[in-house]
């Protein structure tokens, strides 16, 4: 069952249902045959069992699938699942402004990265990024070290604590590897960019009383420019697409005292004092020229895993993982905040008082936005067995992440204002504060540039300390089976901090963050065999779990899980899980100060009709209003009054193994997640739309909107988390798996389908319910009704072939739009991989992703690249070749 890579869900005329996204993954509870004799722990339960078919749906991606896929990123591997949706850090994506630049994360069910819990060998990981972050960086774990990934698509707070609302991702490492393995990989897009290389060395061996594994991994990804794929940002006009540009322009703009908008000279060596009425189509800036489609990154990972038998009944397990990441993105030439300039200022060519604004300072080299992080995750565990066969575990985990990010050039707003004030600046040679000519391109002197620019750099980090103690075993033997239990205590201390650049703080762009909390927990789980070998059931088993949590910031809470598995016969098993879950605010949500970001935002007053048009007019926005650019300055930050959110989840499923074909299995699972008192920060586009749809009901949102009195452009938005929302997600997951052997050939087919039935949220009591089902958004990704992944593999003794397809269903733009961008069609991606064994110790593999170079669809509410970069491939066709040598 090879790989888990791209996919296409077929518009299957073969299928009764209209498929959509299919992942190439193995599902433990969908296993075609289970021959396990050893008791193991599967994600979703602390009790070790022989039967892998649990009440909760668990998808398993094994090492063979991962290796054959050619994927070098855990994030990419997981984000292609049909259960994944929306933004998740997107480490290689140009557009991501929160939760740690270039940090790779996972977003199950489109409910957000904060509602998906990530574990390493069943233990929590420290958050990753450049300070006070919300989720681990998945790329801290080298792909080649992974034995399997277990994805629990069910709420699991009673088992693992807070944050496991949408599900759990548990990454299991190769702690028993023996031998030596060297892997070399190189790839690029067919445009000759997005180059990537990987070197991986894994060494492992047994010694007298244990085993040791060492892994060294280096990954280097190159750059791909957006301008090589999209010549300009597009907008829809008259049923056709036209370029439109940023209102922050070369040469600079100004609002004069008489209210007119003027643009200063944009021609190099032209008339430096010339200016004219501003016109976007003539003067706007094409920022796609300063935008990555694929961002450069270098990663170095070092891991050491040791298992040692202290005695016949006690084992010591240690793990140490270190990761260094260096990443960068090109960004547009930096600007500065609006500055009032007097009419008699020496360089003011207009003769009027004015407000200088929206200037692209191209006189300064394009700045680079860069990040570097160092992450250390380590644990030491003692595992033992008592005389009654009960097993115990005591362990300590420690994780620390530190990071730096910044711009190679930025503008000091205070100093810019000084150079535009004749009472403080001077034109004398070597003046301490030189006067600046910002009125036209290439007018700035080097002395002014040197005075107003600086290297902006901030630092921060995250830390996690956790103690755990656990006891599990069988209490007594019943006629129907063994009554088993697991119980334990945990204590976790987490903290995060962020120290912004001093000048950025002075300019009000960013505030420091510092916060911490402690949680003490106790849990108990019981596996109850209710019936066995009855006329109406082969087996009937129940699973009950409770967890008590006491937070230093919020007090205590209790969550529960009730699970049931009913095997009617050898072919059919039914299962159900009812559970409660909760999530506490992250450090940034609770303690975060204000951070200013330019976020993609759609102003509904442009082209408005009906009620929205009437309310825009009432607010003073004219009917011919045109939004100036695609981004709005948005203040984001924490809220000390925000509290925990709570959820109730229900999963109902069936597993059918064909009595007529041993290698045919079908599973069907219904999921329903309801979140109350949800922590939510409403996106700018939605805030504006709701405000102008009903200014009275949404008065709180309207108060967070600031418009320019003259231009009516939105100059500032503010969004902070609050406990006001309710969210509801429901759908069906289906899997069809088949394997067949014929002579020396092995055939396998794996088809995953997700049908979304409901995805909606209500901002607060009495507000309209936002229906996301079948919608695509500017900032949360796509919520198409259908997603599907299909993978077909054929293998012989010395070679393997795999063809995978991924289908993403059609959707309507949440913000409407013209006939072109108001909806996106269904999209199918095709991938192909092949490997050949040249010798017993040498394998060569290659693959092509996005085989037919499928281009992303245009979207009215696009967030970059004229499309939804969280959903669609913006790089295009690309290939790789990989060599694996065992010695």
Characterise this structure.
The protein has 887 residues and is mostly beta strands. The chain has one domain: TonB-dependent receptor, beta-barrel domain (Maltoporin, Chain A). The protein is 8% helix and 48% strand. The strands form eight sheets. The protein has a 22-stranded antiparallel beta barrel. Strands 2-3-6-7-4-5 form a six-stranded mixed beta sheet. The two termini are 25 Å apart. The N terminus is likely disordered.
Write the layout of secondary structure elements.
Blueprint: E1 21-22, E2 26-27, E3 58-62, H1 63-69, H2 74-79, E4 116-120, E5 123-124, E6 146-152, H3 157-160, E7 167-173, E8 179-189, E9 196-207, E10 210-221, E11 224-225, E12 234-237, E13 240-243, E14 249-250, E15 253-256, E16 261-264, E17 275-277, H4 280-283, E18 292-294, E19 297-309, E20 314-330, E21 339-341, E22 354-357, E23 359-360, E24 368-385, E25 391-411, H5 413-419, H6 446-452, E26 453-478, E27 481-499, H7 502-506, E28 513-534, E29 537-551, E30 555-567, E31 572-583, H8 587-591, E32 595-600, H9 610-618, E33 631-636, E34 645-657, E35 664-680, H10 684-693, H11 699-702, E36 705-707, E37 714-719, E38 722-742, E39 745-762, E40 769-771, E41 775-776, E42 782-783, E43 786-795, E44 799-808, E45 811-813, E46 823-824, E47 827-839, E48 842-849, E49 878-886
Parallel strand pairs: 1-43, 4-7, 14-23, 33-37, 41-45
Antiparallel strand pairs: 2-3, 3-6, 4-5, 6-7, 8-9, 8-49, 9-10, 10-19, 11-18, 12-13, 15-16, 15-22, 16-17, 19-20, 20-24, 21-22, 24-25, 25-26, 26-27, 27-28, 28-29, 29-30, 30-31, 31-34, 32-33, 34-35, 35-38, 36-37, 38-39, 39-40, 39-43, 41-42, 43-44, 44-47, 45-46, 47-48, 48-49
